[in-house]
Amino acid sequence: VLMGEWVTLPSVKQLVNAPADRCFSIFTCDGYTRWPEWSPWLTEVTTEPGEEEAISRWFLTAKGFGISWLARNAEVEEGKLIRWESISGVRQGGSCSFTAIAPQSTELCLELRFETPAAIALLFSGPWLREYVKGRLQADMERFAVIAEREHREAQGDQDDGPSDPGIDEPASQDAVRKPLRQRLSGLRDRFRRSE
């Protein structure tokens, strides 16, 4: 069997306005089954039943060509790092770190590598293909950020968008303050006119 060469893709970083533990939870949810939501490269990710360790099956389709592989977690630091590697099919692996920049802000760093025939590996030595793939991965991470931030806002009850308590009517309370002021100003104008 001819062995290929390993290609390491450029790392991709993405800032997400959500806590690290929430980003980690969405990223790894149900054995990565949510990945197709932000990665159009993937058609499906499923989990293998009856396995002692977490095994996931990945399906990728590009230009009408489909491939699949099985992967397992190689390293897990809850809320901080996940690293995986394939155990059958396409030989590949990757990792994603979750660095808390602030309580509500996280930087994700995604790294991927895979084995490919030497001729294709040679193509990846040029900048144009590497930058193209990096751009696609960056777009995936941006879509992930949109999903994570939306779900974080929903979990927080949209507190940043204004009062979530239906019993608090901010415009009405402001009007309750302004109405007496308007009445006092009106009374002052009437007094001024009478003095003239």
Your description of this structure?
With 196 residues, the protein is an alpha+beta fold. 37% of the residues lie in helices and 35% in strands. It has five helices and eight strands. Strands 1, 2, 3, 4, 5, 6, 7 and 8 form an eight-stranded antiparallel beta sheet that branches. Strand 5 and strand 6 form a beta hairpin. The longest helix is centred in the last third of the chain and has 29 residues, at 127-155.
In summary, what is this structure?
With 196 residues, the chain is of the alpha+beta class. It has helices at 20-27, 29-32, 118-123, 127-155, 170-195; strands spanning 5-8, 12-16, 42-47, 55-62, 65-77, 81-89, 92-102, 105-116.
List keywords for this structure.
8-stranded antiparallel sheet
The amount of beta strand, in percent, is 25-35%
Q: What letter string, H or E per element, gives the SSE order? A: EEHHEEEEEEHHH
**Approximate helicity band:** 25-40%
Kindly report how far apart the N and C termini lie.
106 Å
Number of helices: 5
Largest pleated sheet? 8 strands, antiparallel
- Structural category is alpha+beta
Low-pLDDT windows of residues: 162-182
The whole-angstrom Rg is: 27 Å
Shape: globular
Query: Got a strand count?
Result: 8
Mean pLDDT across residues? 80
SSE layout and pairing:
Blueprint (H helix, E strand, L loop, with lengths): L4 E4 L3 E5 L3 H8 L1 H4 L9 E6 L7 E8 L2 E13 L3 E9 L2 E11 L2 E12 L1 H6 L3 H29 L14 H26 L1
Antiparallel strand pairs: 1-8, 2-8, 3-4, 4-5, 5-6, 6-7, 7-8
